Amino acid sequence: MRINKVLQSLSLSVAGLAMPVLALANDITTKYNLRTPASGMAESLYSLHNWLMIVCVVIFVVVFGVMFYSIYAHRKSKGHQPATFHESTTMEIAWTVVPFLIVVVIGVYATPIVMAQKDTTNADITIKATGYQWKWGYDYLKGEGQGISFLSTLSTPYEQRINQQPKTLNYLSEVDNPVVVPVGKKIRVVTTANDVIHAWMVPAFGVKQDAIPGFVRDTWFKADRIGTFNGHCAELCGKDHAFMPIVVKVVSAEDYTKWVAEQKKKLAANAAPAQLAQAK
């Protein structure tokens, strides 16, 4: 019995040591904080988030600190009598001016970031992302890769979804055709939808834009490092909402040029039979 307990303790210890390794290997499901920024915009949003968190914590500590101190230090059991004054002009001015100044400071810091988020001009590449139930369609509209078009669907095996196979670290976050973009280039993403409202979101880039049927919205990002980055539809869009992930593969300029050439060869090969059929 004692040996079993020792073995159980060792197993738990090994599992505990393994969790940080798994967390480092998987940037999708094992972190409680925001994703590691992979663009300048995401870095700005991350800094803004941390700064606002500090402000909120300070306000929380001050307000509740004063409240609980007042309750404890002026409790009836110590013989304190309730205050007899009805109002305090000084206090009313203070709790009006101080929050106003806090909001102004936050606005001054946040406004340039919000404005930069909306600046989709001078993009190197423009990609249209169309939401479907339940997949994404991508069309490269402008820049290197113009004319490339494909659908991107979930590639997680169905057996994993019904618990007949062990789930991998990329469970529900892998697709058959990822979006491929070059590093260091401004990518404009034009969003729309074919059926219901979707939302194109990649946290590592600080990007989230609704995709609305009949409307065209846009956003942008510029990845500053090579890698594969994951996102999901961020708008409840039906029963398979959880099964339409987004994968963006950021590559070097040389590898992107090679990928474009390969995709255009595939498109040409697929178009040839259709052209022959029309000729007949």
Question: What features would you describe in this structure?
Answer:
The chain has two domains: 36-71 and 88-119; 125-271, Sandwich (Immunoglobulin-like), CATH 2.60.40.420. It is built from five helices and ten strands. It has helices spanning 2-25, 40-73, 89-117, 158-161, 253-279; strands at residues 125-132, 135-142, 149-152, 179-182, 187-193, 198-202, 207-211, 217-221, 227-233, 245-251. It has a five-stranded mixed beta sheet with strand order 3-2-1-5-8, with no helix packed on it. A hairpin with a 4-residue loop joins strand 6 (198-202) and strand 7 (207-211). Helix 2 packs antiparallel against helix 3. The radius of gyration is 27 Å and the shape is elongated.
Topology of this protein?
Blueprint: H1 2-25, H2 40-73, H3 89-117, E1 125-132, E2 135-142, E3 149-152, H4 158-161, E4 179-182, E5 187-193, E6 198-202, E7 207-211, E8 217-221, E9 227-233, E10 245-251, H5 253-279
Parallel strand pairs: 1-5, 4-10
Antiparallel strand pairs: 1-2, 2-3, 5-8, 6-7, 6-9, 9-10
Helix pairs in contact: 2-3
Characteristic key phrases:
280 residues; alpha+beta; Immunoglobulin-like; 2 domains; 5-stranded mixed β-sheet; 10 strands; elongated; disordered N terminus
Beta content comes to 15-25%
- With strands numbered from the N-terminus, the spatial order across the biggest sheet is 3-2-1-5-8
CATH superfamily of the largest domain: Cupredoxins -  blue copper proteins
Structural class: alpha+beta
Proper CATH architecture of the largest domain: Sandwich
Number of strands: 10
How far apart, in Å, are the first and last alpha carbons?
Answer: 81 Å
Largest β-sheet summary: 5 strands, mixed
- Globular, elongated, flat, extended or rod-shaped: what is the shape? elongated
- Total tally of structural domains: 2
Report the uncertain regions.
1-26
Q: Would you tell me which CATH topology of the largest domain applies? A: Immunoglobulin-like
